[in-house]
Every structure is written in C-alpha cells, then in structure tokens.
Design brief:
Glycosyltransferase; mainly alpha; Farnesyl Diphosphate Synthase; two-stranded antiparallel sheet; about 475 residues; globular; 2 domains; magnesium
Length: about 475
C-alpha cells in the first residue's frame, strides 16, 4: 500500500493546480476505515495522515466521486475527533490545527485569513540552515516568518489606506444620508481584501468593494424601505441608463442611489477600457438592470402574496443576490483581457451561475426564519410549501444543502479545467467568491449579524499579527 500522507497531499495539491488526478486511483485504496487501521500509520495513530486524507476528501470535482471521498471524509473526521477527545494527537501536529480543519472545510477558508493563521502558528524552530562558513547556525524558519509578517503588515497599510478612500467615496456620493441603508465599508471591503490580496490588485479591490456597498444599498431600498413608486423609478432609470434624464427622479434618495450606481459604473468602465482595450459600460449597465429587475420581481411577490414556482424563484433569486455587479464588473480589472466572446461564453456564464446558486441558497438557509416573519419568498420556505403534508423543514434544508454541494462541485470542476477559454486569474475569482459566500453564510447571515464578519475584516485589515516570541538564538 502506498503512503497515505503522500498520496492524499499529492492528490489535493495536483488537483487544485489543474491536473486531472483520479480519486479512484489515488485514494480508492483508502476508502474504508480498515485501510488506516491495517497500515503502519494506523499502528502509529498518525494524525498527519488522517489530516491529509480529510483535506483531500473535500476536493471533489465529479459527482461519481461522492462515495469514495465522502467515505474518506467521514471516517477520517471521526478518528480525528476521537484523537482530540482522548488527547492522542501526534506530537508533530498542533491539536488546534486538527480542530480548525474539522470546523472549516477548505471551501470556507479565505486566502488572507489563512495566511494570517499560518504565520501566527508557524514553527520557526522547524528548519535550520548555515548562512555562511563564518557565521553561526541560524533558524531559517525565523527569517521566513519575519518576511511573511513584514509582507502581511505592509499589505495592511495598503488596505487601511484603501478603506479610508472607500469611506471618503461613501461621503462624496452622499450614501450616508440614506437612513435606511446599511453602510458597512469594512465588511464590504473584506471579501476583495481577503481574496484579491496582492497590492497590485488595487483597482479590482476598490471596484468590488464599491459595488458591494452599492448592492447593499439597493437591496435595502427594495427589501426594507422603498415604496413601490421608488422601486419602479429606480428600475426605469437603470434600464434607460444614459437616457435617464427622460425618466426623472421621484425622490431624493432614488436620485442618490441611481447617481451612485451610474457614476461609479462609468468610472470603473473608464479604467477597464485601458485594460480591456474596448468599452464595457454596456455590460455594466446590463448587469445592474438584471439585478434591479430581479429585485423588483421579488418585491412584487411580497406585495401581492404571489407564490412562484421554484424555477421562477431561482430565475429572479440568482441575479437579485447581486454578484453580477460585484464580481463580473470587477473581473475587467483583474488583469487579463476578457473578449466579448469569452464574457458571453457558456463556460463563463456556467461558472457565474454555479457561484450564484451557492450564494443564493446559502443566504436562504440562514434567512428563512426572518423572511417567513416578513412574509417574503425564500427557497427553503418555497420547497417546504411544495412538500407533501408532513414534510419537515430539516428534510428541505438537506435538499437545499445537496443543491449547494452540487453547484460547488461543478464550479470547482470548471475552475480547474485545463482547456478553458476563461483566464486562470478570473476563474480563481469565481472560486474565491464562492468561498466568500460560504464564509459569510455557513453558520450565520454575515450581513444581518455583522459581528463575525467585522472580526474577520479587522483580522485582515487592522489587527497586527499575534506572533509568540521565540527564545533568542546565540
């Protein structure tokens, strides 16, 4: 039998870098718990092997892999939990690492938070090198940790400046005057800072953050405060776009919202034209039009008491979630050129759809109780209403989670395809935003209960690293 740790790590790393590695050939021999107990790793109670198998089990890109990977994930998690409870974690593994891996699947982890955690838990005494024939042996790990910490803190300085610019932009556009709107610059800046983290991605980070704030404002207008007249007025303004003067504004706050959308989109389009070598403003206008039309449809359902079919709900629910203006607009500033035929391709739009499905359904799982009280439509409530008498909410939630899992698997498969016309940096953004929505909604509604996301945002942007001091080396 091949080495478990090596096979599992190789499978995970190769697959996540686009290699078509078979789960059956790489991990099939470990599908049963007995394979561990019968191995030398099992005799030694090797936590590292279990941990790598558990991580590998999550990298699924085909539905037919479900049986093997789910079995490995199940028994490896069980044995890791047993080791934690009985204090039998291998000495070379930090029990906190095991606990973290069990609580945070890789599709819920964000790069910059992972970087922070890795730096803070890096064991500087693990590696030593002789720097020169005339100098003492110095822990190379200590230098690596120092460089990583310096880079992290330098990035935080950049992020803090960008956050200040974002707060100034909010004031310039008078968004803080909208008493109904949740203005949350840090929470809206956190996703791009945690995923588009290189300093040179400044323009993409700012574009995504601004559109995130705008989407939240528009959502609050439709979901909380706006009258039917105001909602219909905003939809018409966005549909008319450059000809919006023919429509006029029914209220000052609609004017503030529309001008913020219009001016920000045109500013982004001007910057993107230099990267893309073409105008993309028509696409931005279309993204916003699709979003507000979908929000209007949902508002009409709530006002009239109409119960849509599940297909009708998802047709509106996916664009109303708002990732079109937030993500697709920002992709034009990530770096690679995105020709029109790529943006309109089936592959590009399938990635967008699967990312949207994950976001919408994860949001619905966390918000269905609140939305039931408010008389709103939600996929969980809709499926429950369509169930035969006696159907349970837990059964419906399991069905929704299966749909989320299916879309997540399909998205990862598309992202990792070798023969893709969508540039790799753009595919990475689709996957990273899928991870963001899992981070925001896996346990709570990260926008409705902002405490957890504020903590995560501060960890990326403001809070200095907490690195234990190591003994001085002589």
């Amino acid at each position: 039998m091949l080495d478990m740790t090596t096979c599992a790590m190789a499978f995970r790393l190769l697959r996540m870098h686009g290699y078509d590695v078979s789960s059956d050939a790489s991990l099939g021999q470990f599908s049963e718990e007995s394979s561990f107990h019968d191995s030398i790793q099992g005799c030694l109670g090797d936590t590292e092997a279990l941990l790598e198998l558990h991580k590998a089990s999550q990298v699924q890109i085909r539905e037919q892999e479900t049986a093997i990977l789910r079995s490995i994930g199940s028994w490896s998690a069980k044995l890791l939990e047993q080791q934690l409870r009985s204090n039998k974690v291998s000495r070379n593994i930090d029990p906190a690492e095991v606990d973290y891996a069990l609580k945070h699947p890789f599709y819920t982890t964000l790069d910059r938070l992972e970087h922070r955690r890795n730096i803070e838990h890096f064991k500087t005494t693990a590696i030593q090198v002789l720097k020169s024939a005339y100098r003492a042996c110095v822990p190379a790990g200590e230098e690596i940790a120092a460089l990583a910490a310096a880079d992290f803190h330098a990035s935080q300085t950049v992020y803090q400046e960008e956050l200040q610019c974002l707060e100034s932009w909010v004031k310039e556009l008078r968004l803080q005057e909208l008493e109904f709107a949740r203005i949350m610059p840090l929470i809206c800046f956190f996703p791009p800072a945690a995923t588009l983290f290189p300093c040179e991605q400044h323009e993409a980070r700012m574009a995504m953050s601004k559109h995130n704030i705008l989407l939240t404002v528009v959502d609050d207008l439709f979901d909380v405060e706006g009258s039917r007249e105001e909602m219909e007025n905003l939809v018409k303004l966005v549909e008319m776009w450059d000809a919006h003067n023919r429509v006029g504004f029914c209220s000052e706050r609609v004017e503030i919202v529309f001008r913020a959308i219009y001016d920000t989109s045109n500013h982004l389009a001007a910057k993107a034209a230099a990267v893309q070598k073409r105008s993309i403003i028509h696409h931005l206008a279309e993204l916003w039009a699709n979003t507000v039309r979908a929000m209007m449809a949902e508002a009409n359902w709530a006002m009239t008491g109409h119960l849509p079919t599940f297909e009708e709900y998802m047709a509106a629910g996916e664009p109303s979630f708002g990732l079109g203006p937030i993500v697709l607009a920002s992709l034009y500033l990530v770096g690679p050129e995105l020709p029109e035929d790529v943006v309109t391709s089936q592959e590009y739009n399938e990635m967008f759809r699967h990312m949207n499905v994950c976001g919408r359904l994860l949001n619905d799982l966390q918000s269905y109780e609140r939305e039931k009280e408010q008389g709103k439509v939600n996929s969980v409530l809709l499926l429950l209403a369509l169930e035969e008498e006696g159907g349970s909410i837990e059964a419906v939630k399991r069905e929704v989670r299966r749909a989320i899992e299916a879309s997540r698997i399909q998205l990862l498969r598309l992202v990792l395809r070798n023969e893709s016309e969508v540039p790799w940096p753009c595919r990475q953004v689709f996957w990273n935003i899928c991870k963001v929505v899992h981070q925001f909604y896996v346990h709570v509604d990260g926008y409705a209960s902002a405490k957890q996301m504020m903590h995560a945002g501060n960890a990326v942007v403001h809070h200095p690293l907490q690195i234990p001091r190591s003994p001085a080396h002589i």
